[in-house]
Task: structure prediction
Amino acid sequence: MRIFISTGEVSGDLQGSLLIDALRCQAAKVGLELDIVALGGEKMANVGATLVGNTSGIGSVGILESLPYVIPTLQMQQRAIAYLKQHPPDVVVLIDYMGPNLGIGNYLRRNLPQIPIVYYIAPQEWVWSVNSRNTNLIVGITDKLLAIFPEEARYFQQKGAKVTWVGHPLVDRVQNFPSRETARTQLGIAADVISVALLPASRRQELKHLLPVIFQAAQVIQSKLPQVHFWIPLSLEIYREPIERAIQRYGLRGSVVSGRTQEVLAAADLAITKSGTVNLELALLQVPQVVLYRLHPITAWIARTVLKGSIPFASPPNLVVMKPIVPEFLQEQATPENVTQAALELLLNPESKKQMLADYQQMRQCLGEVGVCDRAAQEILQMLNKSES
Result:
């Protein structure tokens, strides 16, 4: 049975790889052989997907920011459609990646309507929708929507989608992370060292807009806490050179590591991080964090004034419970001064840290039980059986 999975960017590649592992495991239990073809990245390829195109390096957030990637993204979408035309799969799974995935889904609905489409980790329309068009498109192309947040499930159900809430896949992923003690031993971190993870970028635009703010804050923290050491895990190897140059420029005591993200996150006393999937990983690992995000000023202006967009929060931990669990600084508020102050508060005030960890526990209750990826895989395999009959 052939499954086609379409996703983009580093986080989508991670989620796709977790799903593929679960699909193979669940399929083996019922004696099914799977041929998995994908738009994705190295992580998906490493667990046995045949890539039609590699999308991990062409992601962006924002209007101006996306312009350099418009043509490569359209080319990737056309490549996927050409493949689907020649080799119709038994089921298609879409993971986030809204623009290309809506294009692929629309093509399938018009030309290959017999192929079931599952949307797993739908675009966050329930958070930042400025009109109903995208929501209607998602609902229109989807036979089954597998929601990872309870609020997401409610939103799409109300809009007419057939929805199953499976929980958040990171609940499964953090089960495999090392303990704090093990991680610190593996990285060679002494007991008296304060370990701070810096997570500036999974997209090239973030190196420009976020890295300077994060590293300036780190510079001040280092001057006040001589026992601090910074760890920067690479999301993509191509970022190594600019990050290492920046470490030298800002005079940080820091280590850039590849393939050790789990250890870095698990070992951290604090993380200063961009907004994204990693915020949930840190919360599930009980690591205090400060979150920031910046877009090009023109993109932000368009979003606020033309599109009238407003979001209650940006980081997933805050979105899950719709309250400020972690300090987040967006756009003009994302300054080195604000980030430094929030970081030192969490490092030096035990009460602030204690409150954040308690709030993490409340958030954890909303993410479902372990076995998320297996539940998602079972739902997808059920769609396979329906299409076969």
